[in-house]
Amino acid sequence: MHTKVIGAQFIELASVDSTNNYAAEHLSLSELQHGAVILAHDQTAGRGQRRRTWTSSNGLDLTYSIVLRPQGLKAADHFRLGKVAALAVHQTVEEALKVTQGVGGGQVRIKWPNDILVDRQKIAGILIQNDVVGGQVQSAIVGIGLNVNSSELNHEHHATSLRLEVGQPQDRMALLERLCQVFEHWWDLLASDPAQVDASYVERLWARGRYADFELDGQPFTGRPVDVDADGRLLVEGEAGGVLAYGLDRLRFAPR
Ligand code: BTN
Prior knowledge:
alpha+beta, 256 residues, single chain, five-stranded antiparallel β-sheet, binds biotin
């Protein structure tokens, strides 16, 4: 890896239940350093958000976890890790599409909180587990699933892959290396200019500034996402004008 920190320790597994589980089981400092990357060519019980499963094709997609040991990241600012991860995956996907499709390639957006979409179809998901001690994030496991070469995806889930978008197979390991490089860039930026990370995240937010359909406490709700707060709650302007913050426990985008 041509990186200083992210991926300097690299663990490659043929098969595991979940790279996030593997990281959690080996989280001691002596086993996993800051920036360690655990890649599995196959995940037998991949985990998604909201206790869903994450499916990927053996040897075709990217499923990996990055272990972070932030210095002085307050628990209240934990969502900035999610922003860094989303920005890194967003950039990697956008670059991969541009290389083959020119500037007119599909539109890549971050769907709150940290799904990556290409033209409204999900191409990547992120699952973060934080370990908080004394109000500080002691360690974090950032699990990333990127659909790379799968071509049989569940269309009901509106999923896509780089191969489907680009029309030709992609080099998974080159993509992983690029992901680590750009992750390192956004991670470094978080230390030097966190406001820039915040601004970059909100700029790329799907449906920002336009009315979208949600479910709020299980009921249909229409609102306009404007930003996220430090806790990662989505700030949504309702049709009557007021802006309120909602967490994932109450709000989700309405299924299409
Ligand atoms: C989502 O639901 O969108 C989040 C999906 C996260 C999947 C990745 S794949 C690597 C890591 N290991 C897991 O079990 N999950 C994450």
